[in-house]
Amino acid sequence: xxxxxxxxxxxxxxxxxxxxxxxxxxxxxxxxxxxxxxxxxxxxxxxxxxxxxxxxxxxxxxxxxxxxxxxxxxxxxxxxxxxxxxxxxxxxxxxxxxxxxxxxxxxxxxxxxxxxxxxxxxxxxxxxxxxxxxxxxxxxxxxxxxxxxxxxxxxxxxxxxxxxxxxxxxxxxxxxxxxxxxxxxxxxxxxxxxxxxxxxxxxxxxxxxxxxxxxxxxxxxxxxxxxxxxxxxxxxxxxxxxxxxxxxxxxxxxxxxxxxxxxxxxxxxxxxxxxxxxxxxxxxxxxxxxxxxxxxxxxxxxxxxx
Length: 306
Description:
- By secondary structure, the chain is of the alpha+beta class.
- The chain folds into 2 domains: 1-30 and 267-306; 35-264, C8orf32 fold, CATH 3.10.620.
- Helix content is 39%, strand content 17%.
- It has 9 helices and 10 strands.
- The protein has helices at 3-26, 59-62, 69-79, 84-98, 115-123, 130-143, 193-198, 238-241, 267-298; strands spanning 32-36, 50-52, 55-57, 148-154, 161-168, 172-177, 182-185, 204-207, 231-235, 253-259.
- The strands form 2 sheets. It has an 8-stranded mixed sheet.
- The longest helix has 32 residues, at 267-298.
- The N and C termini lie close together (5 Å).
- The mean pLDDT is 85.
């Protein structure tokens, strides 16, 4: 194999890798970086900004960002100066009244997601599910300077669910489900995702306002169980706010994860990732062979024609 052929083959491999990366970057969930941490890493007290691993929630910036003004206006009109659990509950009640449950046409994991546009459409009656409710609630809380974060629950047995954690001055970080205005408890106190993950018994769903809450999900779907026994993931805030610093430069989003080392990204996404890895390995092998041939020539040794 001469130098020209080697160069052409190297460029072809890079082209295939680039094409696969472009497809991967467009697919939902697939273009993510996962950073595994211990549960205590996610328990830091916000002041009001907070950070988990390399991902930072700049709450002060979100609280004044012009891009989140629609969320801020809605919060002030519905919830005034409420904070913590009361603020999250107020938003949940407002969203339940306006947004029917159903499959949305967009969500935060899509490449072309526009938070403000999606927010206005949902308030006008477009259906949404747990991703919709949690993204809107977390963004609305951040827009007024209340520490909050989107949380994905991936249980060992049942299907996953999306909720939020909100910082409450009395209870600290607490899991809150915007779909049915509920918290979780061990029977004694409200719990964070990290506390729930370490808890060995079954959890109790506590509805904040039983008059307006819809049934299902944390309130009923996991009765007698602990859905936090598997993996818990925190998408970087850029995914649902689309402003501020983006942790992942090449990929669409980064996640902080603790718990069971399992995160499903889909069959096609996995194939593409394997394909990209193979291309990178082939490129390295080709470069090493070219370097080996060059060294052999300099030594005056006979170089194989393969």
